Structures are given as structure tokens and as C-alpha cells.
Amino acid sequence: MDFLNSITLLGNFIIVPGLVYGSQLALGALGVTLIYGILRFSNFAHGETMAVGSMVTILATWGLQSLGVSISPLPTALLALPIGIIAAILLCLTTDKIVYRFYRRQRAAPVTLLIASLGVMFFYSGLTRFVVGPGDINFFDGTRFIIRAREFKQMTGLDEGLAIKTTHGITIIITLIIVAALFYFLNRTKTGKSMRAYSDNRDLALLSGINPDRVVLIVWIITAILATIAGTLYGLDKSFKPFTFLQLLLPIFAAAIVGGIGNPLGAITGGFVIAFSEISITYAYRKFLTYNLPESWEPDGLVQLLSTDYKFAVSFVILVVVLLVRPTGIFRGQSV
Amino acid sequence: MKKMLLATAVSSAILATSAFAHDHGSVKIGLLLGFTGPAESLAPAMAAGAELAFKEATDSGKFLDGKAIEVIRADSTCVDASAATAAAERLATSDKVASFVGALCSGATGAILQGVARTNGLMMISPSATSPALTTAEDDDLFFRVSPSDARQGEIIAQMLIEQDIKSAALTYTNNDYGKGLADSIQTSYEGLGGKITLAAAHEDGKGDYNAEVGALSSAGGDMLVVVGYLDQGGKGIIQSSLDTGAFDQFFLPDAMIGESIFGHFGADIDGSIGSIPGTDSDGAATYSELATAAGFEAGPYSGESYDAAALTLLAMQAAGSSASADAKAKVFDVANAPGEKIYPGELAKGLEILASGGEIDYVGATSVELIGPGEAAGSYREIVVEGGTDKTVKFRQ
């Protein structure tokens, strides 16, 4: 019984949050890694693309709610998602046309594009704050929980509860669908293969008749889709605050680099590695050990490796270690 | 046509002189509140309260022989000391205010006191800064507050926890002057009364996710979670995360956690939680609440204190017969405490008149003001319990 209690405890505070946060990071890191692999620059505006996409989704959600449309028990935002995605696609394509295309034609160094993306990031973040303001927006509706902690305790008779929110379920299921669709697209379709070819060797791809403008167009469309979905899922699960998307950029880049930047499989693995290390290193294990150890061995302290204040430092440390030991990342992406 | 012009000229001259006769210039007062930032939902009702007092005194025509009061609002934020100082500096040097009412949060108040009020020699009365550190801060006798120090609130909270038979509690505080000050005071008093704080952990405001913080608090355990935070910020996030994970379902809510954005948002989910907020059951509080309703706003937390802070500023100036801070600061204790005629909200005209004729007053106001020590309120608290998703007043404590 004690053992089951301790496992439930870990499930509630590490495994479920880790899976959900990992999925959100993985979706974000996939966008970053695709841009890096094909357009060859680190897109710092990615976090703010997520913010703009989810902002439009929120506006559409409000519109639908005022019309009385609802898909309860699921949140209305899922229905509004396509509108957010279309807005994000339009925004990305316009930005590419106005900003990035110029530098691409110049064959500018990646660092020039990176700095340009930094400017785009500030523009996007201003845009978000201008439209919906800097405040906290909660746009979740529908049923909040799949299982409540209290119900779980009654059902199983355990002392520890396990809570699964509706947003947890939605996040994991949508991530699975998106990742499967993306891999099918990249590995099985002609367009996907041409994109991989373009990523491997740009000149050779051009020689074999791949239209570069089309590849760029599709990369931005996919990135905008991934960013909007990741942003909306994060906003649904926590709450939408423009400021948090800048904070998210660090773990997202860490995830992409740890997994091997330019490698989609790496981005997903990286997302989960970062999420689980952030959560498991800052968790206090006292209760877990109290359940599993004989009474005389019970710890007095909290058995917490790092205070939660240092959560973001964990991503940094992993990033540095990976770059020192294995610069190409776990799945051998391009060397950074 | 000529006649018409002449008539206009004459009548405008008459108007101008008559206006001049009623207005011997005006006194500017800076109203520094955190209109943006983690306590922004409290600021509008507080500003309305202070401005109500200023308007009352101006309308009476008795303030310093009929001077008008011009209020200049400025945003002191809550946690950004440099923004707060810049806003106060602007009021002091460019607008040339005679005195400050504010600021809202302890951090901003301390920064303005040291950076602007002392260097410019301006009096400052805060309605809501509660950090114990301000009791001992160097202030050249310029700083007063209508709110009690958190050292007092800590004692009250500890007593309430013990009376509710809560033997151990986890505590989390927002990582700034206010949070740290109150958390230390709660821990010392509670452990002095035989309770046990299992973990006192700081949290940062403005994060998207507080799962990790709640995980640590839950692991430490306790019968209740004391959330020394802000209702629009981390405090709300901590409660949300605790409810989601089932870590805690009852909370202790100190003053900065009490407001509609908590009760309206969580509703019956936090039933059984208790809280404390400066407040009094005196007649003044009820009168003030009516005055506020008549003026078209709701008397929220610290709104009455703001009215009192503004009223004390004016009464002290009246007693000194001058709007200069250097003269007025010596009179604040005289008008706030006995002896003298008791002055309730809405009676500022009476108070101003007594002072003008050389009499003495004991300002009671909306919150039973009684200044002690270096110029802070003695403090009476309203004890609340959450029932059916709203706050119910249990009793008042002195």
C-alpha cells in the first residue's frame, strides 16, 4: 500500500506534469528545429509566434462563446484553433516576405538572420500586448478534470490522490496526433522528402529541380501550425500571459539543442528530457521516501536537490553539459 | 456691437474676480498607488477613496482659508522600485506637490521614502504599506502609515491558526519586502504559540506554472497552506495549482490575498479557508461605505485607509496652518489621536473648522485611526471565513 501511495505521489507531481510540459516543449522545439534545419537560423521569434497564434485563438474563442457555440466538455478553444492557425500562417508568411527573404537572397550569415528574428520577436510581443494587453487571461471552459484528486482517493482507497486535468489529456493526445502527422509528412510524402533533401544539401536539391520558394512556404506553414497549437495548449493548461512565452523560449531551445538541432525526433526527446529534469530535480522527495523507507530512516529535511527558484537553471546546465560532451545532441543533429 | 463687446468684457472681468475671490490658489498632492502590477485590482477603489476626501475638503471651502486641492495621480507600480521612484520624482520636481499619499506596496513605499520623500523633505502617508521594516526605517519623521505593521498581523494570524486548532502549516510567500516581512512574523509568532511551520518557501510572481513550488510544499505537509502572496499574481497561481493537484484545499489568506479575483475565481472550492484583513466594526466604517456608494464606487480593501491617509494629510496641514510638509509632519499625531473632538468620515468640514479656530480633534475616520510608535496604525483586523464561495466576517480583533 505504501509503495502504491508513493507511486501515485510521483505520478501526481512528476509523471503527469512532466508528460504534459514535455509535450508542450516538444511541439515548440519541433518548430524551432524545422526552421533551423531548413532555413538555417535560430528563430528567436518562435515563442512570440506562439503568443500571437494563441492570442487570435483566444479572440476567436470569445467570439464563439458569445455566439453560444460550445463543445462541452471540451474547451471551445479547440474549435477556435484553426482560426488562430490561419492568422499565425499569414503572419509568418508576411514576415518572411518582408524580413527574412531579403537576407536569404543576400545569402546572409545565420547570425544576421538570428538578429533579424530578435527584432521580429520584439515586434510580435508588442503586437500581442497591444491587442490583448499584458494581463493574465483564462480562456478555458468545459469540464476541468478527467479525474479529481479527491475522487481518485475515494475510488482507490489510497492516501494520495492523482489529478488528471482535461487539458492534460488534450495536450498529450493532440501532441501524439501532430507528431504522427508530421513524421508521416516528412518521411512519406513527396513534399516532405523534398524538404529533407533541401535541408541536407541545398545546392544539390536545387539542381534536382526542387522549388526553394515552395519549401520555404511549407516550412513556415508547418511552423505556424506547431507554434499556435503549442501556445494554445500551454495557455489552456496554465493561463495565457504574454510574458511567459519569452520565458518558454529558453527551455524550448534547450530541448531542440539537447535532442540534436535540425532533427525532429531529437526535438521531441529533448522536450521530454528537459521537462522531466526540471521537474524531478526540483521536487522534494521527503514524502516519497517516508512511504518507502523504514520509520527510523525517515528524512528530516525535504530531500530536494535544488530549490524551485532554480528551475530554469536546470535547462542551462543540461544545455552546457550537452554542448561540451556531445555538441551534435543526442540524435546527431547539425553541429551548433 | 460695441455695447456687446463692452458687456462681454465687463462680465468676464467680474467672473474672473469672483473666481479669484473664492480661490486663493490650490495645494497639489501626489497620489501614488500601484495602478499597474500585482496589486492593480486594489488601486482603483483606493484612489477613489483618497480623492473622495480631497473633494470633500475642497468643497467645504474651509481648507486653509478656501484653498482647492489638486490631486495628481501617479503609478508607483508595486515591485518596480525604479519606476516608483521615477514617478514620485516627477511629482516632486515637475508638479511640485506639497505632500504624498501612498504608496500601495511596501517595496515601492520604502524606495520612494528614501529616494524622493526624504531628499525633497515631503511628507508621505501610506494607506497600505505593511512591512515591519518600515517601522525602523530612517524617515526624518516624514513617513506615516494608516495600516498596521505586519509584525502585528503576524501575531493575529498565528493566534487565529492556533484557535482553529491547526497544529502545523506550510507557508509560501512572495519574494519581496512585504512577503518576507509578514512570513517571518507569522513563523515567529506561530512557533512561539506551539505551532509548526513545516516549510517556508518563497515564490516568484508572474510565472505560468507553480506546480514545482506546490510539490515541495505538499511534500513538507501541514493542515493548511498559508499563502502570503498577491491575489492577481503568484498567490492565485499557488492556490490554483494546490487545488488541481489536491495538495491543499484550505488556505490562510492574509490581507493582500483578499479580493474578488480570489473568491470570484475559486468560489466554493476554497470553502473553509480563513483570512485576516485590516478592518474595524466602528461606525466610521459603515459611514464610509455609504459615502463610497453615494460617490459611485465600492469600498474595497484599503479603500477606507486611503480616505483616512488623505484626510490626515489635509487635517495636519490645516492644524499647521500651512501646506508645507516641514510644518505639517509635526501635527499628524495631534490630529490622529486623542484628545479632541472625534471626527468621522464625511465630517472633514467640521474637523477643518475646529482646527482653524484653534481647537483639537481626534480623527477616527473609516478605520478608527490610532497612531502608535513611529507613526503607524495600532491595527484592528477583520477575521473572515470563506463559505459558499464568498467571504463572511467572523469577528473583529484589536
Description:
The complex is a heterodimer of chains A (336) and B (398). Chain A has helices at 2-39, 46-67, 77-105, 110-132, 149-156, 166-188, 190-200, 202-207, 212-237, 242-259, 264-282, 286-292, 311-325; strands at 145-147, 164-165. Chain A has 336 residues and is mainly alpha-helical. Chain A has a single domain (2-135, 142-325), classed as ABC transporter involved in vitamin B12 uptake, BtuC (Orthogonal Bundle). In chain A, helix 1 runs antiparallel to helix 9 (212-237) and helix 6 packs antiparallel against helix 9. Chain A is globular, with a radius of gyration of 21 Å. In chain B, helix 8 packs across helix 9 and helix 12 (303-320) packs parallel to helix 15. Chain B is globular and about 80 Å long. The interface between A and B is medium-sized, with 37 and 23 residues.
Comma- or semicolon-separated keywords:
heterodimer, A: 336 residues, mainly alpha, ABC transporter involved in vitamin B12 uptake, BtuC, 1% strand, B: 398 residues, Rossmann fold, 2 domains, seven-stranded mixed β-sheet, globular
Number of domains of chain B: 2
CATH class descriptor name of the largest domain in chain B: Alpha Beta
- CATH classification, class level of chain A: Mainly Alpha
Q: How many E strands of chain A?
A: 2
How many distinct beta strands of chain B? 16
Regarding quaternary structure, what we see is heterodimer
The biggest beta sheet of chain B, please?
Answer: 7 strands, mixed
Helix/strand layout:
The complex is a heterodimer of chains A (336) and B (398).
Chain A: H1 2-39, H2 46-67, H3 77-105, H4 110-132, E1 145-147, H5 149-156, E2 164-165, H6 166-188, H7 190-200, H8 202-207, H9 212-237, H10 242-259, H11 264-282, H12 286-292, H13 311-325
Antiparallel strand pairs in A: 1-2
Helix pairs in contact in A: 1-6, 1-9, 1-10, 1-11, 1-12, 2-3, 2-4, 2-9, 2-10, 3-4, 3-9, 6-7, 6-9, 10-11, 10-13, 11-13
Chain B: H1 2-22, E1 26-33, H2 43-60, E2 68-75, H3 81-93, E3 99-102, H4 106-120, E4 123-126, H5 133-136, E5 143-145, H6 150-163, E6 168-174, H7 177-192, E7 196-203, H8 211-220, E8 224-228, H9 234-245, E9 251-253, H10 260-266, E10 274-278, H11 283-295, H12 303-320, H13 325-328, H14 332-336, E11 341-343, H15 348-356, E12 361-363, E13 371-372, E14 376-377, E15 381-387, E16 390-397
Parallel strand pairs in B: 1-2, 1-3, 3-4, 4-5, 6-7, 6-8, 8-9, 9-10, 11-12
Antiparallel strand pairs in B: 10-15, 13-14, 15-16
Helix pairs in contact in B: 2-12, 3-4, 6-7, 8-9, 12-15
